[in-house]
Amino acid sequence: MPYAVQEFDVYPTINSRKCNGCGNCVEICPGEVFALNGDEPIPSRPEDCIECLACVNQCPAEALQLQED
User: Fold this and answer.
1) pLDDT tens readout for residues 5-14
2) Please, which residues bridge with residue 12 across strands?
3) Number of Cβ atoms within 10 Å of the Cβ of 14
4) Is residue 7 in a domain?
């Protein structure tokens, strides 16, 4: 019996109040989803997120999360 596969659009978000600007997310992301805008990282290519959670796990400020669209 085949299983139904659900697809979700998941996008990384950064809580700017928590973010300390360390840039770990920019460095660790295999999909190059993040870029620096001055000293602040932004998800410049959120559609390229592969949901690996590397950015979430490497964020010392716990400012990153993945949200469903």
Assistant:
1) 555 588 999 9
2) 66
3) 19
4) no
Write the single-letter amino acid at 11.
Y
Which tens digit of pLDDT belongs to each residue from 37-58? 999 999 999 999 999 999 999 9
Is residue 63 in a domain?
yes
The total number of residues shown for the chain amounts to 69
Proportion of the chain in helix, strand, coil states, percent, rounded to 5: 20, 25, 55
Task: Provide the whole-model pTM.
Answer: 0.81
Residue 8 DSSP class: -
Query: Which residues are CB-contacts of 9 (< 8 A; sequence separation ≥ 6)?
Result: 68, 69
Q: Is residue 32 part of a domain?
A: yes
Question: What confidence score (pLDDT) does residue 4 get?
Answer: 55
Instruction: Decide: 43 and 12 in contact? Cβ < 8 Å.
Output: yes
- DSSP code, position 63: -
